[in-house]
Each structure stands twice: as C-alpha cells, then as structure tokens.
C-alpha cells in the first residue's frame, strides 16, 4: 500500500471508507522499534504507523 490507497475501515459496528494519507514509519513486530521512517510503501503483514483521511 502507498499513499492514496483507498480501503474500508471496520471498527465495531461502523464501516467507513478511508484513504491512506501518509506512512509515518514501519515497525519491527518482534522488537516494537521503528525500523524505517517515511517508507514509500508497506506490504501485507507489515506493522506501520499511518495517517488516514
């Protein structure tokens, strides 16, 4: 996924269409440490901090 990607976010009983605005950082799942700041994209099963609009 990269900025501009559109998805449907499900939270409890609410569904909302959102767009990925920015990827802030990628996180290592084992250590919970930031591994890459501002990556260009993220892949399936990556952990990341992102901003939606």
UniProtKB/TrEMBL annotation:
Keyword Nucleotide-binding tagged: yes
UniProt keyword list: GTP-binding, Nucleotide-binding
Start and end residues of each GTP-eEF1A C-terminal domain: 1-53
InterPro entries in the record: GTP-eEF1A_C, Transl_elong_EF1A/Init_IF2_C
GO terms of molecular function: GTP binding
SUPFAM superfamilies reported in the protein's UniProt record: EF-Tu/eEF-1alpha/eIF2-gamma C-terminal domain
Organism superkingdom: Eukaryota
Tagged with keyword Transmembrane helix: no
Entry's transmembrane regions: none
Protein name: GTP-eEF1A C-terminal domain-containing protein
Organism from which the protein derives: Opisthorchis viverrini (Southeast Asian liver fluke)
